[in-house]
Amino acid sequence: MTGTASFDFTGKNVFVVGGTSGINLGIAEAFSRAGARMGVASRKQDKVDAAVEKLSNDAGKALGYAFDVRSFEDVSAALNDFAEKAGKIDVLISGAAGNFPAPAVAISPNGFKSVIDIDLMGTFHVMRAAHPNMARPGSLINISAPQAVQAMPFQVHVCAAKAGVDMITKCLAIEWGPDNLRVNSVIPGPIDGTEGMDRLAPTEKMREKVIQSVPMKRMGDPEDVALACLYLASDAGRYVNGQILAADGGWVAGGVQLPM
Ligand code: COA
Ligand code: NAP
């Protein structure tokens, strides 16, 4: 782990929503290695407990919360509790999401709504509940997706949700900028070995097709995305606000091709 070594978040509080697996856990681990006191949350208590073990460090035992981002009350109660016990939040990462590939004609209104409720409503819930608990200056980062900027087959629900997520980012950036809060999005490219990629490219042949469609000819790993978050949240990103930053090997710029 070389890249993250140059960042120091000692004395900072970092909370990662949806940080118990995959990319977001990689992001949380990077901030933990950089010395931050960590908070982490997702739906399943066993995943939260395992993440708390991994993220505890010299700054203290990580604080874990099991909640569904679809409940504003539960999100709010957890972030209030974290701020009370650990102090105001310096960096908030919002990355909980749901996805399944399906043609639009096979998605029921409830299936569409599920993804909107998790990705879009969930992002608003997290941002809204974080606001009173943020330190000033503070940094909020939404984990978006290539679907936010490019139409894709079998992804109408995710494209609609993540495009909305990036608009939340931009609107909050201009509303909260005067209050010394910066809000940005990070778009991960195809990240190897994750739930999201396993759902979209479940066979070796499909994986290879994805790799060939990335200009850098490789999938990313969670640290590739974590580095973008560390940069945005650090002093190096102090004047960056309202941006949608892709850490994707050029996938979005080159025209994303899903293998379906
Ligand atoms: N194709 C079509 N519809 C699907 C589907 C699929 N593959 N998978 C789920 N749905 C529909 C269900 O049929 C249901 O609609 P219905 O009530 O009209 O039948 C609706 O989605 C909700 O399903 P349910 O299983 O009750 O949702 P949930 O709220 O428990 O879970 C999901 C949400 C579906 C997004 C689930 O996949 C999830 O929890 N994902 C989290 C992990 C993840 O996706 N990681 C990758 C992040 S990019
Ligand atoms: P993942 O491992 O499934 O991560 C999703 C996380 O969110 C888990 O911790 C999950 O834990 C939690 N979660 C899901 N639904 C939730 C809910 N309703 N309430 C609270 N927590 C919830 O998936 P991933 O593939 O690493 O994706 C992580 C993020 O990166 C997502 O925002 C995704 O859109 C984005 N992304 C991924 C890729 C990729 O290649 N994988 C590419 C572009 C963008 P629980 O199950 O315990 O709830």
Write a structural description.
This protein is α/β, with parallel strands linked by helices and 260 residues long. The chain has a single domain, classed as 3-Layer(aba) Sandwich (Rossmann fold). Helix content is 43%, strand content 17%. It contains nine helices and seven strands, in the order E-H-E-H-E-H-E-H-E-H-E-H-H-H-E-H. The protein has a seven-stranded parallel sheet with strand order 3-2-1-4-5-6-7, sandwiched between helices. Helix 3 packs parallel to helix 4. The longest helix has 22 residues. 48% of the residues are buried. The site of coenzyme A (COA) has 15 residues, from helix 4 and helix 6.
Write down the secondary-structure element order. Answer: EHEHEHEHEHEHHHEH
How many E-type strands? 7
Distance between the termini: 34 Å
Computed CA radius of gyration, to the nearest angstrom: 17 Å
The structural domain count equals 1
**CATH fold assignment:** Rossmann fold
Query: How much strand content do the residues show?
Result: 15-25%
Query: So, CATH architecture?
Result: 3-Layer(aba) Sandwich
Question: Biggest sheet, open or closed, and with what strands and sense?
Answer: 7 strands, parallel
Stretches with pLDDT under 50, minimum 5 residues? none
Q: Please identify the top-level CATH class.
A: Alpha Beta
Bin the helical content: 40-55%
Gross geometry: globular
Mean pLDDT comes to: 96
Kindly report the name of the CATH homologous superfamily: NAD(P)-binding Rossmann-like Domain
How many separate helices? 9
Main sheet: strand order: 3-2-1-4-5-6-7
Name the bound molecules. coenzyme A, NADP nicotinamide-adenine-dinucleotide phosphate
